[in-house]
Each structure stands twice: as C-alpha cells, then as structure tokens.
Design the sequence.
C-alpha cells in the first residue's frame, strides 16, 4: 500500500508515480496537518480519466481524525457532535478524492491515550452506519494498543477489518497487536517499517539475507512483513524504490530467515 503522509505539494505527483509503478492501494487521511487528501484525488482523477487505472482496480483508504490531531484546517465543524463530525469528514473525503465510495474508512487513533472514551465509541458508531450504507466497504482503526483494540472489539457491532500501526522491531514488530488481529481475522497494516527501524536494518541478520538474495534492506523488511501476515505500507518518494518495494513481495525468505528477522532487536 502506498502511504501519502507528509508529502504536501508533492502529493499529486508522487501518487501518480506510485500508480504508474503499479500500486493499486492508496492510503491517505482527511487531516490537512499531515496529508493533502485533495492532491491524492487529483492524481486519481487524472489517472482514471487517462485510462491508467479504473476505480474498481483501486483500494482507497482514508481516515477520520479527531480535533487534537488536526490543525486549523478542519474538515468538519468543531462545535458539532462527534457523529456529525464523522459524517462531515467522510463527505469531504469523497469530494477530495472524487469518488462515490471508499474501500476502507479508518479511525485515525483513539481520542485518549489509554482505554476508549465516549467520543471513540460515538465515532465508531457513526462509521458503522457508513459501512452499513455501503459507502465504505470496510472499517479500520489506527494507532491503537492491544488493550484499546480489545475494548473496541468488545463494543463494536461492525468489527474493524484493518488495524494500521507504526511497527517497531524492538517491540517484536507489534507482536501483541498482530496476534490479536490474527485471532480476529483482522488485516494488520504496518507503517514506518523502515524509518522506525534504521538501527535494526544495519544488523548482520539483514546483511546476510541481503547477500543471499541480492535484495535491499527495504525489500527484505517488506518481504518479512508480508511473510508475517502484514500488509506493509511504503511512502517512498523515489520511483525506483517504488518499483523495488513492489518486487519485494516476490522475494522468498526461508523460515529460519523469517524467524531471525522477526526477532531483530537494536
């Protein structure tokens, strides 16, 4: 999946390059502080109009972000009830992206650091209504702990299909959350697989696999992630790295290598 965070005025161009490289899953958010959702939409609209892709070939994922995660450029009325904010943000996302439905709509992190607050449950109920209406095919949640995910699962009528978390090697690549996802049939999306693990990528275990396979450390990490059942995200700005990252899914790691990489620690 191609992640579009932190790209600002480059968003449209880089999203187009990702589509040309072969990406068909795109991740964004209606959070102008870190994303330029309308830039993603401009790239998608042009690519569809020119016949590069069809809407049906794309997997589009965006997010609802609470007020504390936003700057002054809000996609909703800050005075409105949370349920209204979700609806307003969703409509704004459809407008930005130029589509009639989403493939995945994600709660961009709980409103509190521990547990879940009433606002989180209210937001999820509003998202469930969108899923039931068919305007988004799936729901997801991002930046959650295992305890928060357990609480969400206990209270949800429509459980999340996806969890998207920053993934650290020193924490077993988010082992506890991944295990809970696996037990509930939830697809785990891992982001910052490279930037959060620069030290670990220089360790001998990675170098040995690189030597055997002729692959880059990035390709090895993405192959490992897929081997562990993750859907990896990449946000590279390099067209060559985009192509390399996609080819990583064809890289075969043997079980011993996969186990050693999963145990990486800086």
Sequence:
């Amino acid at each position: 999946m191609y992640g579009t965070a932190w790209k600002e005025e480059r968003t449209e161009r880089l999203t187009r390059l990702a589509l040309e490289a072969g990406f068909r899953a795109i991740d964004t958010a209606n959070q102008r502080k870190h994303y330029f959702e309308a830039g993603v939409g401009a790239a998608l609209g042009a690519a569809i109009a020119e016949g590069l892709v069809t809407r049906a070939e794309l997997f589009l994922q965006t997010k609802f972000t609470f007020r504390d995660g936003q700057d002054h450029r809000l996609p909703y009325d800050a005075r409105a009830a949370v349920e209204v904010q979700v609806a307003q943000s969703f409509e704004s996302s459809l407008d930005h992206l130029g589509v009639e439905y989403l493939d995945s709509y994600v709660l961009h992190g709980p409103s509190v650091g521990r547990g879940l607050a009433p606002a989180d449950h209210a937001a999820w109920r509003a998202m469930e209504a969108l899923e039931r209406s068919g305007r988004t095919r799936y729901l997801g949640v991002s930046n959650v702990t295992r305890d928060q995910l357990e609480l969400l699962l206990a209270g949800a009528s429509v459980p999340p299909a996806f969890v998207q978390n920053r993934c650290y090697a020193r924490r077993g690549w988010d082992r506890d959350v991944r295990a809970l996802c696996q037990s509930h049939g939830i697809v785990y999306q891992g982001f910052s697989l490279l930037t959060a693990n620069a030290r670990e990528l220089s360790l001998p275990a990675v170098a040995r696999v690189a030597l055997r396979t002729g692959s880059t450390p990035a390709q090895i990490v993405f192959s490992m992630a897929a081997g562990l059942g993750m859907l990896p995200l990449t946000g590279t700005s390099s067209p060559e790295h985009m192509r390399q990252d996609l080819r990583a899914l064809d890289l075969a790691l043997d079980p011993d290598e996969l186990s050693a990489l999963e145990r990486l620690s800086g």
User: Anything to note?
Assistant: The mean pLDDT is 97. The CA atoms of residues 143 and 259 lie 25 Å apart. The radius of gyration is 18 Å. The beta strands are 2-3, 25-27, 59-64, 102-107, 136-142, 162-166, 187-191, 230-232.
